[in-house]
Design goal:
By secondary structure, this protein is mainly α. Helix 3 packs antiparallel against helix 10 and helix 6 packs antiparallel against helix 7. It starts with 5 loop residues before the first helix and ends with a helix.
Amino acid sequence: MVSQFPGEAAAESHGGRLVRVVAWAAVIVAAAVFVLANRRDIPDAWRAALAANGWWLLAGLGWTALYLVGQAGMYAGAWRAVGLQGRLAEMLQPALAGGALNIVSKSAGMGGLAVFLTRAKQAGEPVGLVTTAYTGVVVIAHATFTLTLLGVFIVMWVDGQVTRLELLAGAIFGVYVIVQVAVLAGALWSRAAVRRVYRAAGAAAHAGRRMLGREHGAFVPNDAAADELFEAVSALRRTPRRLAGAFAWGVAVELAGAGLLWSVLRALGEPASPVVALSGYAMTVLFSTVGVLPGGLGFAEASLGAMLRSYGVSLPGTAATVVLFRIGEAWIPLVAGLLALRISSRRRRGAGTSAVMDEGEWG
C-alpha cells in the first residue's frame, strides 16, 4: 500500500533516509574496526593476494555468487511452500537487502523480515504467510548450519583439533539454537501464544511509527493476521516436505561458503583439503554468531586465523586468506544488500509520488 497524501510520503521518505544513514554508518564503523583489527596483517595479505592465482580467485567469486543466489533460493522455496509466488529472480533483491540488515544487526536472523513485510504490503501478500515463510528460512538456515557444525566437530575431534574455546563457542551456539527453537515451537503450537507475540510485535512497530510521525492513532491488535500465521504453520507441520526445496538451497549455501574458503586457499597455494575448508568456514560462522559485534567482526577473523594456523597454513597465507575470505563471505554480501536496499527505497518513493499525482489528477 502506498501513501495517499504528500505528508505521509514525506514521513516515509524521512524514515527510509534514517534507516539508510544508520546502515551506512554501521558499515563505515565496521570497516574501520576491520582495518584496525587487521592492520598488521593487511600488508602481508596484500602482497600474497597480488601473487595469488587469478583463476582460483575468480572461482571464489563464483562461490560467493552461489552463496547469495542460494539464500534467494531458500526464500523462493519457502514462499512456494506456503502457497505464495516465489520465483528465484524476484527473491534475489529482497534476500540481499534482508541479508544486509541481518549482518549489521544482532537479531538472530530476524532483522531482514522488515524488508519482506514491506514488500508484502506493496504486493498485497498476506503478512501472516510471509512471516511464516521467512521464519521457515531462519529455521532452515540454523538447521543446515547446525548439521554442518556437528560434522565438523566430529572430524576435528577425531583429528584432535578441537580447542576449549571452540567447544565453548559450540556450546553457546547450541544453547542459542535450543532456546530459539523452544520459544518458536512454544509459540507456534499455540494459537493464543501466537496472538500474544503478534500483539507485542505490533505494539512495538506502532510505537516506532509514531516516533517517526507515520502513525497518529491508537494501536489496534490484528488477531486475524496472527490466526493466518498459525494456520499456515500448522499446515507446514503436517507436510514438512514442502520445505525440501528451501532445505536443499540451505545446504548449497553451506557448501558455497566452504567452497569459497577452499578456492581462496588454492589461489594462495596453501593446503586446501575439503576438511580444512569446511572446518574454517564453520568456525567463522560460529564465532560470527556468538560474537558481540555485528557480523562477528574480530571474532570471525581471529577464529579463522587460529584454525588455519592449526592446519599448517603459513602466517602470510593465513593473513591473506582471512582478508580475502571475509571480503567474499561478509563484505560483498553486505555491500550488495545495501545497494539492494537503496534500489528498493527508490522504487517505493517513485510509487508514492505516482500515487500522489494520481490522487491529485483523479481525486
